[in-house]
Design goal:
The protein is of the alpha+beta class. It is built from 3 helices and 2 strands, in the order ααββα. α1 crosses α3 and α2 packs antiparallel against α3. The protein is rod-shaped.
Length: 140
């Protein structure tokens, strides 16, 4: 398995990255709501009241028209929050990538050290033990 495939799989499924992506999506949805409130909004309500001696049914129609403000402040706030949350997603992704690459590099170094120990040092130690068993001890 390639290291970059392992790293990308670990990063994509990491809870911190998923949370950051969810927050960015929530901010995009709020921006969409703020932007859509610039246009006139139509509201229709159907009602019915029942009293002892009469019943009435009616319809209420209303609409809001943003004339001067057009919700610019809320739209600007939502745009800024969307940019911040998108930057947070990228920051978390870079942080996780760096941490995983460092861990993989440490793993490769440790594997190299194990190979060196098993290949050269362990065999030399075995030869030394075998030689020590062969050579008679001299008592002084």
């Amino acid at each position: 398995i390639r290291d970059d495939l392992v790293a990308s799989t670990l990063i994509a499924g990491h809870p911190r990255l998923q949370a950051a992506r969810a927050e960015a999506e929530r901010q995009r949805a709020q921006l969409s709501v703020a932007t859509s409130s610039r246009v006139p909004d139509l509201g229709v309500t159907l009602f019915r009241t029942d009293e002892i001696d009469k019943a009435s049914t009616g319809v209420s129609v209303g609409f809001t028209v943003p004339l001067w403000n057009r919700n610019r402040g809320e739209i600007a706030r939502a745009q800024a929050a969307t940019l911040v949350s998108s930057a947070e997603v990228e920051r978390v992704r870079v942080e996780l990538t760096t941490a995983i690459e460092a861990a993989l590099r440490d793993l490769q170094i440790a594997a190299g050290q194990v190979g060196l120990l098993e290949g050269e040092i362990l065999s030399a130690a075995r030869r030394s033990v075998d030689l020590a068993r062969i050579v008679p001890h001299v008592d002084g």
